[in-house]
Every structure is written in C-alpha cells, then in structure tokens.
Design goal:
elongated; 4 domains; Molybdopterin biosynthesis moea protein, domain 2; Molybdopterin biosynthesis moeA protein, domain 3; 30% strand; single chain
Amino acid sequence: MISAQEAKKIILEYIRQSAVIEVPIEESLGQLSALDIFSPLDLPPFPQSSMDGYAFSYADLNNPEGLEIVDQIAAGDSTSIQIQPGQAVRIFTGAAVPEGADTIIMQEKTEIRDKRLFIKDRALIPGTHLRSMGSEIKKGDPALTKDSLLNPAAIGFLASMGLTKVSVYARPTLGILITGNELESPGHALPYGKVYDSNSFTFKSAFQQIGIREISILKVTDQVALLIEALHGALDKHDVVILTGGVSVGDFDFVIEATRHCGVQQVFHKIKQKPGKPFYFGVKEGKYVFGLPGNPASSLTCFYEYIEPAIQKMMGKPSSIKIARAPITAEYDKPAGLTHFLKAYFDGSRVTPLDAQESFRLKSFARANALIAIDENTTSVSVGEEVEVHILPV
C-alpha cells in the first residue's frame, strides 16, 4: 500500500493534458482557452454613444443661438452622416456618432426651443458619453490569454468581437462501469437482498458538476467474462474508465483480474486510507482506469481526493477542491497507519465532523461541504486543534 499523499502525486504525474480542439463558443463554458486570442477588429468598431441624448461638437458648447438639430441616429443605423459647426443630431445609446461630433449631452440636460438645442450643462467636458473607436480593445490586441477561464462574460466578449469558435483543452470522455449483483435501479420494485444503485447517479452528477458531458454508464453483474467485455468496450470508446465495486479481494471481486486481461498496466492498488483503501489506478495507451470500492461514501471520497484533480488537469484546470486549515469542533482518535477522511461541515471558520462516518452512509455526505484529512501518523486530535480541510465544490 502507498500513502494518500503518494497516490495523489503519482496520479498527477501520469495524467496528461487533453488535446487542443476548437469548439463553438456557446459550448465552451467552464473550459480554459488553450491559446492566446487576439481581437480581429476595433471594439467598438466606430465611435459610439453611451447615452440617449444629442451629439455635437464641443466647440459649440456655448453657442448662444443654440444648435440646429439636423438628424436622428438610432442604434443599428448604418447611414454615415457628417454634421457642420452649429449642428447637432438626436442620438440613442449604441448608435454611431456622426463625423464632426465629439461629445454627447444627456437629453435630461438640454432644452429644445424652436427646434434648436440648448445645452444646460456647463460642466460638460469633451468626449463625455462617447465611446471612442477601439476603446474596449484595438484590432490585434490580446483579448484573452492562454488558460483564461471561459465564463459567461468571456464568452460574451468573444462574441462581441465576432468570434464563433475558441480553442480549448478537450473534455475527456468517461465510461463508468457499475458492478454488483446486488444492485437494482431506482424506480423498480426492490427484491429481498437487493439495494438500489446510487453510484451511477452520484458519479454522473459529480462529473457533470465539473463540466464533463460525455458520460456513459453501464451496469455489469459480478461475472468476470462480462466485466472483461465491458471494460474492453469502455477502453475503446473513452479516455477515462471508472469501475465501482469489485475492486477488493473477495470471491466476487473481479476488477483487478479484468484489468489485467484487458492489458491495463497497474500503477498501484490500495492506499493507506479510510475510507477507500482498495482504490486502484492503472493506465493503457494514454487512457486512465480508476477502480473504486462499491460503498457509496468510500467511492465519493476517492472521487474528490483523486479523480476530480486528475480530470481537471486533463482540462488544463486546477482542482476545484480548496485546501484550508481550521480548528475542529470535536476530538477525534484513530490508530496510526491510515489517513482518515471525515465527512464534515465547514462554516468558514471552524470545521465539524459529521456523524455516520461509515463508508456505506451517504446521508451525512449529503450534508457535508468538506472533508477533514487526518494524516496517517496522527492518532489524536483535540477540540480547537487546527486540521486540514478539503472544501468541496458546490
């Protein structure tokens, strides 16, 4: 067995960033830009009004006779006009400012008499309410740097420059094999001796939460031939394969045998931790295989501690799980030799271990927003002592 720290280090050393692909910007939310992006145009592409009002030359500010209103320009009007000294145009937000005008006066600070414009704001300065051409970004300037997060604002910014596609790190495709004769699907009658499958729902949701969309789930009974067939198929189709259940050493635990038969190179099997000790990691031809215990809380703990950071690295991103230190609200004793991960609630200043820490119990995990990590060599933690807190994504 290896330590939890060693397991994390080894996995991330094996994981490689995904290929760079081009996707429509509307499909890029949450990904990182894989390349620097430069603006193909000046933005705005013309001098633009930022206010409903009147456009005029600042030199005419104090014209005692007022200004002749010669035209009206709305946003989207494509006719180019030019005004002369002593003239003004009615203009609306987003409209192109006519040649000869350099200032916009708000309509609330004007007076119209005999169809002439009189300006009531003597504190006005040149260029007020006028967005100059290229004031947002100039043609050829960097718009987003490599590894920028494509959030809604970034996607809108790209669209405002007329871009329709962006280069990103490809999201990996995932195959999840749920093993176990005892599993029944929710919505069906539950025969005696069976339990409802929760892992397929848990993991699909967990991967969707970090932006993974291509997820295939297959349930496999505890028959080695069927598991080998399913694993072969999953490796052919997916970048990452997750197996839950059957990863220990019981009579019906066939995952390790199936991985060997499919040519998966075992990197390690078993970690000095609780829960999730039987965790498995292997590789085959640039693809990654993770074997998780079937107990729901064990498998979800392993997801947060090992798989989530690995998937994020493939997409060029850091883990969304934040590490903090905080005082614990209850004492905790354990034997040396295993790192313990405790389901917990972190209120921003203190962290509280929840009840029902057993590996099969999801009820407490449903209330948890953090895991407490207690090192394998630590045997006792006192109330108020600082512990390592792994804050889970929400």
